[in-house]
Design goal:
Layout (H helix, E strand, L loop, with lengths): L4 H7 L13 H13 L9 H15 L2 H13 L9 H11 L35 H15 L8 H11 L11 E6 L6 H10 L4 E4 L4 H11 L2 E4 L2 H4 L4 H9 L7 E8 L2 E8 L4 E6 L6 H5 L1 E5 L16 H4 L1 H24 L11 H17 L3 H14 L1 H4 L3 H13 L2 H6 L2 E2 H9 L9 H4 L4 H9 L6 E5 L2 E6 L1 H8 L10
Helix pairs in contact: 1-2, 1-3, 2-3, 2-4, 3-4, 6-7, 6-14, 7-15, 14-15, 15-16, 18-23
């Protein structure tokens, strides 16, 4: 007997299974998909029509499998379902829908039936209110348990605040990406991203998406998007850089694309507003515009005496209680955080000469204030540290070069001589693990000629003087300091 799927969708009454009358769930899902597909783009179906039909299908199917299939259908057709308030209402509704559990008088699903896996995890909130101090401590411990940070005091605080802030995307006007970079392999980059996945909400981690997959996933479910091997993803892709930069500010986080609907090509906007974590090796993949819109955490290989617990395959499941607590805290504090961001949109004004840095760090400030305890002080220390070195090592490369040279030239011998030999200085630059100079020329290192070219725009030229009876060509500490002073925070000038 052929099943009338439309009858199932409209009646709201579950069919009872008999030997001659078996509900065709695949047909129900397909019919639901066609129904969405037929909705006009300028006037999509009201939300209550969609939810009523979804409810009817779930009741008829009495299965979590059918619920997941329906959710995937909605996600697939999301670009066709644009209407004011629909996205927010749908996200709220999706979190509250409970798939009916199969019972003895309901039809069974074959074990090998095709399953539809949701793109992101949807959790029930923790049963009781959550202490934000304990929550921040638990997230920080989850990170430091498995990762050796370059700065074990400041860097874990920064990542913890970023994870908490990513739960309140509706509150922010600007939200920085979190960039995790390392000079080479086996520095803990992937481990840190996996650790973030265990304690972030709605995390989606991948390593090889296409451009269209990238923005469609974000548009579909607004995840915490975690991308490993970003150095490969960004390679030669100028378009993807523009898409990612657009997601820095909420009112520009819309990527237009043409979609074929029936026989017409229609311009459709895809939202790219979500927390984004990118990890990669080296610095070449980090453009100036991306660095300017990011908070950068640098990792280097741990020393033999530094230990971290291995992040096992069970770590994500084991951390589910932590994510449920995070869900409860995010729900309970949504209005409070949003109001604080509205009332005080520029709390870091005057604390840095870098306006972009203050914008990037503002959400973390509000989260630290909400947590209370010693977190406001921790935030201030981290912000001052990152601002001093260019917001987490994301300064223009020439400024970074000046910073590194100034530090290398700050020795009694050089100060007395007034100059440092260029060849020795270049060799020392290439040995700095936390800077990109050793990666130049495919790992052969930066050359004296390249250093001279970079510094020439700042008016710095190598000098030739006599030292201990020999002619020495090199750079004077005073010249480096003078060129660098305009790029420091106002209170840090030498």
């Amino acid at each position: 007997m052929e099943i009338d799927a439309e009858k199932h969708l409209n009646s709201g009454k579950a069919e009872q299974e008999t030997d001659d009358d078996i509900v065709d769930y695949d047909l129900m899902v397909a019919t639901f998909s066609r129904w969405i597909d037929q909705q006009p783009t300028d006037k999509p179906a009201p939300l209550n029509d969609i939810t009523d039909r979804m409810h009817d299908m779930i009741v008829a199917g009495a299965s979590d499998l059918v619920r997941d299939q329906v959710i995937d259908v909605v996600l697939l057709h999301w670009p066709r379902m644009k209407s004011t308030g629909l996205r927010t209402e749908w996200n709220n509704m999706r979190d509250s829908i409970d798939g009916a559990q199969s019972s003895s008088d309901q039809p069974s699903i074959e074990a090998d039936a095709p399953t539809a896996r949701p793109l992101v995890e949807i959790l029930e909130p923790w049963e009781t209110p959550v202490d934000p101090l304990e929550l921040a401590r638990d997230i920080r411990n989850q990170l430091t348990r498995h990762v050796v940070f370059d700065d074990p005091e400041i860097d874990p605080d920064v990542v913890t605040l970023w994870v908490l802030a990513s739960c309140h995307m509706d509150a922010w006007y600007i939200f920085a990406k979190l960039l995790i970079k390392s000079p080479t392999k086996r520095c803990g980059k992937t481990t840190l991203m996996r650790a973030i996945r265990t304690c972030a909400l709605r995390a989606f981690m991948t390593a090889d998406p296409t451009k269209s997959t990238f923005f469609r996933i974000i548009d579909a479910c607004a995840p915490t998007f975690i991308l490993d091997e970003a150095d490969r993803f960004f390679q030669g892709e100028h378009e993807i850089g523009g898409i990612i930069n657009a997601g820095h500010t909420r009112d520009t986080a819309l990527v237009p694309r043409t979609e074929q609907i029936d026989d017409e090509w229609v311009v459709t906007g895809f939202l790219v507003w979500c927390g984004q974590v990118f990890g990669g090796i080296g610095s070449k993949w980090i453009s100036d515009t991306l660095a300017d819109r990011s908070i950068i955490v640098h990792l280097t290989r741990k020393r033999p005496n530094q230990k971290a617990r291995k992040l096992t395959a069970r770590a994500f499941d084991d951390a589910e209680p932590l994510r449920r607590k995070l869900t409860r805290w995010a729900n309970d504090t949504a209005d409070i955080v949003a109001q604080a961001a509205t009332d005080n949109p520029d709390p870091l004004d005057g604390r840095s000469d870098n306006d972009r840095a203050t914008d990037n760090w503002t959400p973390l400030f509000h989260i630290a204030e909400q947590i209370r305890g010693d977190w406001p002080q921790r935030f201030s220390k981290a912000f001052a540290h990152y601002a001093m070195i260019g917001d987490g090592r994301d300064v223009d490369q020439t400024v970074q070069l000046l910073l590194d040279m100034e530090q290398l030239l700050d020795t009694p011998e050089t100060q007395k001589a007034g100059i440092r030999n260029t060849s020795k200085l270049v060799a020392e630059l290439n040995r700095i693990e936390t800077s990109p100079w050793g990666e130049f020329r495919n790992g052969q290192g930066i050359t004296a000629q390249a250093v001279a070219r970079m510094l020439s725009d700042f008016g710095v030229q190598p000098k030739r003087i006599k030292h201990r009876g020999k002619a020495v060509r090199g750079y004077a500490p005073a010249d480096i300091t003078e060129a660098l002073n305009p790029y420091r925070p106002a209170d840090a000038e030498k």
